[in-house]
Protein backbone atom coordinates (compact mmCIF):
# COMPACT_ATOMS: atom_id res chain seq x y z
CA UNK A 1 0.00 0.00 0.00
CA UNK A 2 1.74 3.15 -1.26
CA UNK A 3 -0.92 5.85 -1.10
CA UNK A 4 -3.84 6.66 1.20
CA UNK A 5 -6.39 9.43 0.70
CA UNK A 6 -7.94 11.09 3.73
CA UNK A 7 -11.06 13.23 3.32
CA UNK A 8 -11.24 15.77 6.13
CA UNK A 9 -13.55 18.63 7.10
CA UNK A 10 -11.40 19.36 10.20
CA UNK A 11 -14.09 18.01 12.52
CA UNK A 12 -13.69 15.56 15.39
CA UNK A 13 -15.19 12.90 13.11
CA UNK A 14 -12.46 13.52 10.55
CA UNK A 15 -9.80 13.41 13.26
CA UNK A 16 -10.77 9.78 13.98
CA UNK A 17 -10.20 8.98 10.32
CA UNK A 18 -6.88 10.85 10.41
CA UNK A 19 -5.55 8.80 13.32
CA UNK A 20 -6.58 5.56 11.62
CA UNK A 21 -4.93 6.69 8.39
CA UNK A 22 -1.73 7.52 10.31
CA UNK A 23 -1.65 4.04 11.87
CA UNK A 24 -2.04 2.45 8.44
CA UNK A 25 0.56 4.77 6.86
CA UNK A 26 3.12 4.04 9.56
CA UNK A 27 2.55 0.31 9.13
CA UNK A 28 2.79 0.39 5.33
CA UNK A 29 5.01 3.40 4.62
CA UNK A 30 2.24 5.00 2.55
CA UNK A 31 1.89 8.69 1.74
CA UNK A 32 -1.35 10.33 2.90
CA UNK A 33 -3.16 12.65 0.47
CA UNK A 34 -5.00 15.19 2.66
CA UNK A 35 -8.21 16.17 0.86
CA UNK A 36 -10.60 18.96 1.84
CA UNK A 37 -13.70 19.81 -0.21
CA UNK A 38 -15.22 23.31 -0.20
CA UNK A 39 -18.78 23.77 -1.41
CA UNK A 40 -18.41 26.23 -4.29
CA UNK A 41 -22.13 26.94 -4.65
CA UNK A 42 -21.77 30.14 -2.63
CA UNK A 43 -20.50 33.70 -3.13
CA UNK A 44 -16.94 33.74 -4.47
CA UNK A 45 -15.53 35.81 -1.58
CA UNK A 46 -16.74 33.22 0.94
CA UNK A 47 -15.30 30.36 -1.10
CA UNK A 48 -11.93 32.09 -1.47
CA UNK A 49 -11.76 32.89 2.24
CA UNK A 50 -12.51 29.28 3.18
CA UNK A 51 -9.98 28.06 0.63
CA UNK A 52 -7.26 30.22 2.20
CA UNK A 53 -8.16 29.08 5.72
CA UNK A 54 -8.29 25.43 4.64
CA UNK A 55 -4.86 25.72 3.02
CA UNK A 56 -3.35 27.06 6.24
CA UNK A 57 -4.95 24.26 8.29
CA UNK A 58 -3.86 21.56 5.84
CA UNK A 59 -0.31 22.94 5.74
CA UNK A 60 -0.15 22.88 9.53
CA UNK A 61 -1.56 19.36 9.59
CA UNK A 62 0.94 18.11 7.00
CA UNK A 63 3.80 19.58 9.02
CA UNK A 64 2.56 17.88 12.18
CA UNK A 65 2.27 14.51 10.41
CA UNK A 66 5.85 14.82 9.21
CA UNK A 67 7.43 16.00 12.47
CA UNK A 68 5.37 14.03 15.01
CA UNK A 69 4.26 10.88 13.17
CA UNK A 70 6.98 10.59 10.54
CA UNK A 71 4.37 10.31 7.78
CA UNK A 72 4.69 12.08 4.43
CA UNK A 73 1.59 13.79 3.03
CA UNK A 74 0.29 15.94 0.20
CA UNK A 75 -2.42 18.63 0.21
CA UNK A 76 -5.41 18.91 -2.08
CA UNK A 77 -8.43 21.23 -2.03
CA UNK A 78 -11.43 20.56 -4.27
CA UNK A 79 -14.15 23.12 -5.02
CA UNK A 80 -17.31 21.07 -5.42
CA UNK A 81 -20.16 19.35 -3.66
CA UNK A 82 -18.59 17.20 -0.89
CA UNK A 83 -19.59 13.92 -2.54
CA UNK A 84 -18.40 14.94 -6.01
CA UNK A 85 -15.23 16.50 -4.64
CA UNK A 86 -14.22 13.37 -2.74
CA UNK A 87 -14.79 11.18 -5.79
CA UNK A 88 -12.76 13.54 -7.95
CA UNK A 89 -9.89 13.52 -5.48
CA UNK A 90 -9.54 9.72 -5.63
CA UNK A 91 -9.84 9.58 -9.40
CA UNK A 92 -6.36 10.89 -10.18
CA UNK A 93 -4.05 9.91 -8.64
CA UNK A 94 -5.91 6.82 -7.49
CA UNK A 95 -5.07 5.83 -3.87
CA UNK A 96 -4.89 2.29 -2.58
CA UNK A 97 -7.55 3.23 -0.03
CA UNK A 98 -9.75 6.17 0.95
CA UNK A 99 -10.24 6.80 4.68
CA UNK A 100 -13.26 8.84 5.80
CA UNK A 101 -14.95 9.71 9.07
CA UNK A 102 -18.51 8.74 10.02
CA UNK A 103 -21.44 10.51 8.45
CA UNK A 104 -23.09 13.62 9.80
CA UNK A 105 -26.85 13.26 10.00
CA UNK A 106 -28.90 15.55 7.78
CA UNK A 107 -32.29 13.91 8.05
CA UNK A 108 -34.09 15.16 4.96
CA UNK A 109 -31.07 14.95 2.67
CA UNK A 110 -30.12 11.49 3.96
CA UNK A 111 -33.64 10.21 3.33
CA UNK A 112 -33.53 11.15 -0.35
CA UNK A 113 -29.91 10.74 -1.45
CA UNK A 114 -28.06 9.07 1.43
CA UNK A 115 -25.17 10.40 3.49
CA UNK A 116 -21.95 11.56 1.85
CA UNK A 117 -20.18 8.61 3.52
CA UNK A 118 -22.66 6.03 2.24
CA UNK A 119 -22.68 7.49 -1.28
CA UNK A 120 -18.88 7.57 -1.33
CA UNK A 121 -18.62 3.93 -0.28
CA UNK A 122 -21.10 3.02 -3.01
CA UNK A 123 -19.48 5.02 -5.81
CA UNK A 124 -15.72 5.22 -5.14
CA UNK A 125 -13.53 3.10 -7.38
CA UNK A 126 -11.07 2.36 -4.57
CA UNK A 127 -11.63 0.56 -1.24
CA UNK A 128 -13.13 2.84 1.41
CA UNK A 129 -12.55 2.60 5.15
CA UNK A 130 -14.94 4.50 7.41
CA UNK A 131 -13.40 5.09 10.84
CA UNK A 132 -16.25 5.50 13.32
CA UNK A 133 -14.48 5.46 16.67
CA UNK A 134 -11.13 6.75 17.95
CA UNK A 135 -8.46 4.17 17.03
CA UNK A 136 -6.56 2.61 19.94
CA UNK A 137 -4.13 0.59 17.83
CA UNK A 138 -4.14 -2.00 15.09
CA UNK A 139 -7.37 -3.84 14.43
CA UNK A 140 -7.97 -6.84 16.70
CA UNK A 141 -10.74 -8.30 14.54
CA UNK A 142 -11.79 -7.67 10.96
CA UNK A 143 -15.13 -9.08 9.79
CA UNK A 144 -15.84 -9.44 6.08
CA UNK A 145 -19.51 -9.60 5.12
CA UNK A 146 -20.67 -11.14 1.85
CA UNK A 147 -23.78 -12.07 -0.08
CA UNK A 148 -21.64 -14.41 -2.25
CA UNK A 149 -22.31 -12.27 -5.32
CA UNK A 150 -19.82 -11.35 -8.03
CA UNK A 151 -19.66 -7.78 -6.74
CA UNK A 152 -18.94 -8.98 -3.23
CA UNK A 153 -16.29 -11.39 -4.53
CA UNK A 154 -14.39 -8.63 -6.31
CA UNK A 155 -14.66 -6.29 -3.32
CA UNK A 156 -13.30 -8.84 -0.88
CA UNK A 157 -10.51 -9.85 -3.23
CA UNK A 158 -9.35 -6.24 -3.15
CA UNK A 159 -9.40 -6.27 0.63
CA UNK A 160 -7.44 -9.54 0.78
CA UNK A 161 -4.69 -7.86 -1.26
CA UNK A 162 -4.41 -5.29 1.56
CA UNK A 163 -4.34 -8.03 4.19
CA UNK A 164 -0.74 -7.41 5.28
CA UNK A 165 -1.73 -4.02 6.70
CA UNK A 166 -4.59 -5.32 8.87
CA UNK A 167 -3.34 -7.49 11.71
CA UNK A 168 -5.58 -9.51 13.98
CA UNK A 169 -8.28 -12.08 13.67
CA UNK A 170 -10.34 -12.55 10.49
CA UNK A 171 -13.90 -13.75 10.07
CA UNK A 172 -16.27 -13.84 7.11
CA UNK A 173 -20.05 -13.74 7.50
CA UNK A 174 -22.88 -14.71 5.15
CA UNK A 175 -26.55 -14.13 5.98
CA UNK A 176 -28.64 -16.73 4.14
CA UNK A 177 -32.30 -16.56 3.15
CA UNK A 178 -35.03 -19.11 3.97
CA UNK A 179 -37.69 -18.32 1.33
CA UNK A 180 -40.18 -21.00 2.40
CA UNK A 181 -40.49 -19.42 5.83
CA UNK A 182 -41.70 -16.20 4.24
CA UNK A 183 -44.75 -17.89 2.68
CA UNK A 184 -48.19 -17.23 4.09
CA UNK A 185 -48.66 -20.89 5.13
CA UNK A 186 -45.30 -21.13 6.93
CA UNK A 187 -46.95 -20.49 10.30
CA UNK A 188 -48.56 -23.93 10.04
CA UNK A 189 -45.21 -25.73 9.61
CA UNK A 190 -44.27 -27.91 12.58
CA UNK A 191 -41.31 -26.65 14.63
CA UNK A 192 -39.32 -29.84 13.96
CA UNK A 193 -39.84 -29.49 10.19
CA UNK A 194 -38.90 -25.82 10.40
CA UNK A 195 -35.64 -26.64 12.18
CA UNK A 196 -34.82 -29.44 9.73
CA UNK A 197 -35.38 -27.04 6.85
CA UNK A 198 -33.13 -24.39 8.41
CA UNK A 199 -30.44 -26.98 9.21
CA UNK A 200 -30.36 -28.00 5.56
CA UNK A 201 -30.06 -24.41 4.37
CA UNK A 202 -27.41 -23.69 7.01
CA UNK A 203 -25.33 -26.66 5.82
CA UNK A 204 -25.64 -25.47 2.20
CA UNK A 205 -24.63 -21.94 3.23
CA UNK A 206 -21.56 -23.25 5.05
CA UNK A 207 -20.47 -25.26 2.01
CA UNK A 208 -20.99 -22.28 -0.29
CA UNK A 209 -19.03 -20.05 2.07
CA UNK A 210 -16.12 -22.50 2.21
CA UNK A 211 -15.89 -22.44 -1.59
CA UNK A 212 -16.26 -18.65 -1.71
CA UNK A 213 -13.63 -18.05 0.99
CA UNK A 214 -11.17 -20.38 -0.74
CA UNK A 215 -11.66 -18.68 -4.09
CA UNK A 216 -10.95 -15.20 -2.73
CA UNK A 217 -7.93 -16.31 -0.68
CA UNK A 218 -9.60 -16.17 2.74
CA UNK A 219 -9.63 -19.88 3.51
CA UNK A 220 -8.02 -19.31 6.92
CA UNK A 221 -10.73 -16.89 8.07
CA UNK A 222 -13.37 -18.04 10.55
CA UNK A 223 -16.56 -18.71 8.57
CA UNK A 224 -19.92 -17.68 10.02
CA UNK A 225 -23.45 -18.10 8.67
CA UNK A 226 -26.73 -16.71 10.00
CA UNK A 227 -30.33 -17.10 8.95
CA UNK A 228 -31.94 -13.86 7.76
CA UNK A 229 -34.62 -13.90 10.46
CA UNK A 230 -34.55 -10.10 10.68
CA UNK A 231 -33.28 -7.33 8.43
CA UNK A 232 -29.80 -8.08 6.98
CA UNK A 233 -28.26 -5.20 8.95
CA UNK A 234 -29.63 -6.62 12.21
CA UNK A 235 -28.24 -10.07 11.43
CA UNK A 236 -24.84 -8.64 10.48
CA UNK A 237 -24.58 -6.79 13.77
CA UNK A 238 -25.79 -9.87 15.63
CA UNK A 239 -23.05 -11.90 13.97
CA UNK A 240 -20.43 -9.28 14.76
CA UNK A 241 -21.41 -9.13 18.44
CA UNK A 242 -21.33 -12.90 18.76
CA UNK A 243 -17.98 -13.14 17.00
CA UNK A 244 -16.52 -10.39 19.18
CA UNK A 245 -17.63 -12.13 22.39
CA UNK A 246 -15.57 -15.17 21.43
CA UNK A 247 -12.43 -13.18 20.72
CA UNK A 248 -9.50 -13.63 23.15
CA UNK A 249 -8.68 -9.95 22.65
CA UNK A 250 -10.56 -7.07 24.18
CA UNK A 251 -12.30 -5.25 21.36
CA UNK A 252 -13.44 -1.65 21.80
CA UNK A 253 -15.69 -1.77 18.77
CA UNK A 254 -17.63 -3.98 16.42
CA UNK A 255 -15.65 -5.97 13.84
CA UNK A 256 -14.75 -3.72 10.98
CA UNK A 257 -16.31 -3.48 7.56
CA UNK A 258 -14.33 -2.32 4.54
CA UNK A 259 -16.48 -1.06 1.66
CA UNK A 260 -15.13 -1.47 -1.87
CA UNK A 261 -17.19 -1.02 -5.00
CA UNK A 262 -20.90 -1.53 -5.48
CA UNK A 263 -23.03 -4.17 -3.82
CA UNK A 264 -23.77 -7.10 -6.10
CA UNK A 265 -27.25 -8.19 -7.08
CA UNK A 266 -28.57 -11.38 -5.54
CA UNK A 267 -32.09 -12.80 -5.71
CA UNK A 268 -33.24 -9.44 -7.04
CA UNK A 269 -32.44 -7.85 -3.68
CA UNK A 270 -29.86 -5.23 -4.61
CA UNK A 271 -32.12 -2.56 -3.11
CA UNK A 272 -32.40 -4.46 0.16
CA UNK A 273 -28.67 -4.96 0.47
CA UNK A 274 -28.13 -1.27 -0.31
CA UNK A 275 -30.45 -0.49 2.58
CA UNK A 276 -28.60 -3.03 4.73
CA UNK A 277 -25.30 -1.32 4.04
CA UNK A 278 -26.80 2.10 4.81
CA UNK A 279 -28.23 0.69 8.04
CA UNK A 280 -24.85 -0.74 9.04
CA UNK A 281 -23.24 2.65 8.49
CA UNK A 282 -25.98 4.45 10.43
CA UNK A 283 -25.82 2.03 13.34
CA UNK A 284 -22.04 1.88 13.57
CA UNK A 285 -21.78 5.10 15.52
CA UNK A 286 -19.61 3.61 18.27
CA UNK A 287 -17.31 1.40 16.24
CA UNK A 288 -14.28 1.97 14.08
Précis, in short:
By secondary structure, the chain is of the alpha/beta class. The protein folds into 2 domains: 3-130, HUPs (Rossmann fold); 141-283, Rossmann fold. Helix content is 45%, strand content 17%.
What are its keywords?
Rossmann fold, 9 helices, 288 residues, 6-stranded mixed sheet, 45% helix
**How many domains make up the 3D coordinates?**
2
CATH architecture label name of the largest domain: 3-Layer(aba) Sandwich
Structural class designation: alpha/beta
What's the total number of strands? 9
Strand content: 15-25%
Largest sheet: 6 strands, mixed
Report the uncertain regions: 107-113, 246-287
H and E order: EHEHEHEHHEEHEHEHEH
- What's the CATH class of the largest domain, please? Alpha Beta
Count of individual helical segments:
9
Looking at the chains present, what oligomeric state does this protein adopt? single chain
- What spatial order of strands do you see in the largest sheet? 3-2-1-4-5-9
Mean pLDDT: 80
Overall 3D shape: elongated
The end-to-end span amounts to 20 Å
Helix content: 40-55%
| CATH fold-level assignment of the largest domain | Rossmann fold
How many whole angstroms does the radius of gyration measure?
21 Å
Write the layout of secondary structure elements.
Elements: E1 3-7, H1 12-28, E2 31-38, H2 44-69, E3 73-79, H3 82-89, E4 97-100, H4 107-113, H5 116-123, E5 128-130, E6 141-146, H6 150-161, E7 169-176, H7 191-215, E8 222-227, H8 232-245, E9 258-259, H9 270-283
Parallel strand pairs: 1-2, 1-4, 2-3, 4-5, 6-7, 7-8
Antiparallel strand pairs: 5-9
Helix pairs in contact: 3-5, 8-9
